[in-house]
Amino acid sequence: MSKPWSHIWNKSAVYASFLVFTVVVLLPIYWMVRSSVAPAADLIKVPLVYVPTPTLRNFETLVEQVPFFRYVFNSLTFALATTLATLFVSYLAAYAFARIQFPGSGIIMWALVLSMALPEVGTIVPLYRILSSLHLLDTIAGLTLVLSSTLAPFTVWVLVSFIKQVPYEIEEAAIIDGASLPQILGRILVPVTMPGLVTMGLINFINAWNNLLYPLSFTTSPSSKTLSVSITEVFAGYSPWGRPWELIMAVGVTMTVPVVILVLLSQKAIVRGLTGGALK
Amino acid sequence: MHQAYAQGDAYAKSRPSLSALSKATRRRYVLFILLVAPAFLLRLTTAAYPILQTIFLSFTNLNLLKNTDDFVGLQNYPAVASDYGVQAALSFTILLVVGSTVLDLVVGMLVALLLNATFRGTGFARTINLIPWAIPTIVAGYAFRWLLDDQFGLIPYWVNLISGGRLVIFISPVLAKVTVILVHVWKDAPFMAFVFLAGLQGVPLDLYEAAKVDGANAWHRFWRITLPLIMPLAITMGLFRLVWSLGSFDLVYGLTQGGPGVATSVLALQVFREGIMFFKFGFASAISVLLLLVVAIVGIIGLWLFRRAEVAY
Prior knowledge:
The structure holds two protein chains of two kinds. Chain A has two domains: 4-57, no CATH class; 62-276, MetI-like fold (Orthogonal Bundle). Helix content of chain A is 72%, strand content 0%. Chain A is built from 13 helices and no strands. The model of chain A has no long low-confidence stretch (mean pLDDT 90). By secondary structure, chain B is an all-alpha fold. In chain B, helix 12 (218-246) packs antiparallel against helix 15. The longest helix of chain B is centred in the N-terminal third of the chain and has 35 residues, at 23-57. At the A-B interface, helix 1, helix 2, helix 4, helix 5 and helix 6 of A face helix 3, helix 5, helix 6, helix 7 and helix 8 of B.
């Protein structure tokens, strides 16, 4: 922790910036939460109702009007499946890149890593046709397939630097003792590189949970629509008083709460992961 | 895995060129291929092949609604170049991406300095700093749209209380553009700050102490010590941010839908609209190719700056 700045900054300037920072960060969150628990009529009152009498009525309306639990389930399945699939394929590749080097292996790695610069939307039309021909349109499996592929390059890149930090001697000893590759990975490397796996797991989970492009492009029915698609549909709906902001904000809160809890609980792990790994 | 080695060995016996390699080397190659294959095949089938297909489709008039699918050569390109939506989207994409990335870096650095200061509330500030990053972009878009609603939004309401005037953001192209850029910064600067904070904490304290002994003031210490040490990190983050945000449209989709008109549309949104909403696959693919070119140009300029900065610092 570095001290000089605090010595120099006038204390009051620090607290003033802290106040501005807090208000700017939390104001939209406050507004969203306030609108999601307010009776619909309170949203269109002037002067504004800052602290409405909280009610869960908006969430009940959602459950009545859209297959809400189905969407929550789809979002969770999609995010979990994508996280696990991405970690699995990326870890195997990262291990190969970190441990097996020969002329040209570096080029293969960079080809894979640099492919993360491809804008996803640029492949959306062909992917639509590919998924359609594989009968994977409108399925969670199809969404998982394309998003895992998108997330893999960055995950590989971060995991390579984690695996490289593990001294090779440990594995060498295990190999001499006759350990197989799955044993080496499962018993030695995975436990040692756990901070990296946890960090990338979290980042990938958040990415998948928040993903809009793929579900919006490749889903057509409640069997695979996610919350991110659902919120755009609720937004598109009109009530006699205009857009149903109390419902839009209720979906928003539902989408925000899990990821924010996850991030707050795992803040330390993310810091450790990113500072111990690629961004060191 | 062991079975795969055995097969590789048997295969090698019939191939003298391979058996010239030592058994251990061959094993290593086979193992490498097996381990890399899943990720590589995934990228090949869902990234490399689709990109090539996008380029090919851009030379066709494939349209699911009109039921056309003929090779039209370069015809889509003049059409894309003269399309009003694409023109507007191209200029705003560049403004948005460059503007918000620069602001992200500056705001991210300022927030990192705040988070690195010692005061009551450091822990709280560091914790809430991650919320904008974690919140789904589409949700942030809608939350800000509602916060800025001209009738019942909090900000226009306060503006009205203070000034008496009426703030209507989403019908003014200029205000809408500024808003999209600022909300982008709200969403992304905190993660920059988060990474910069880790960088700041890695700056050796004795450097500051030595500079103090030499009589350098805070301003000098920041420009001469902190900034040069953070610079490589800042440029890396800036590059990532630049390239990634070129291809995304979530925020615009929630905040303005590209409006008013097409004032805040971005190339990615135009691709999505023409392709997925109107099924003009050929035309949308040509816009995708344009987007790819922009990514390539921005990426190359970014890398060039990166190299120069590496020399400078």
